[in-house]
Amino acid sequence: MSSLLKVFDITGSAMISQSKRLNTVASNLANAETVAPPGGTPYKAKHVVFTATPLGDDASTGVTVEKIVEDSTPPKMVYNPGDPSADANGFVSMANINVADEMVDMISASRSYQTNVEVMNAAKSLFLKTLTISQ
Q1: Alpha-helical regions (H) of the chain
Q2: For the CA atoms of the chain, what is the radius of gyration?
Q3: pLDDT, tens digit, for every residue of 21-61?
Q4: Are 21 and 46 in contact, with CB atoms under 8 Å apart?
Q5: How many whole angstroms separate alpha carbon 83 and alpha carbon 72?
Q6: In whole angstroms, what is the distance from residue 76 CA to residue 91 CA?
């Protein structure tokens, strides 16, 4: 019975982690077309790093977001000499975000979240059936 209840802890931790991943992707997408201010640095894409986390004193393991790291790839340089943020050569420094990659990451995180919801619902159904049988 307690192992069935651990499913809720495991899937819950995964759902929280995927939610943070979705928020990070949303932030990246929102800043995909931002331009660096004059003399400043542009927005850098961020990515979550997951880690396995023990749940309690048994062998159960969940997942958490260990940290959110900035992407180290250089900014996109776009030739636009009319932009006030352009450098002396006419290039504007923009965020290093690949929108297609971010969309794939968003779909992956969304599907992972949905899968954990389905596992939680299946466990709930089994738990309710167990309670019905034991009465």
Answers
A1: 2-30, 99-133
A2: 22
A3: 999 999 999 999 998 887 788 999 999 999 999 887 777 88
A4: no
A5: 25
A6: 9
- Amino acid 23 reads N
Q: How far apart are CA 109 and CA 18, in angstroms?
A: 6
74, amino acid identity: P
Residue with tokens 């260990």: 66
The whole-model pTM stands at: 0.84
Decide if 29 contacts 102 (C-beta within 8 A): yes
What's the pLDDT tens digit per position in 109-120? 999 999 999 999
According to DSSP, the residues that pair with 92 across neighbouring strands are: 78
Question: Could you tell me the residue ranges of all domains in the chain?
Answer: 2-133
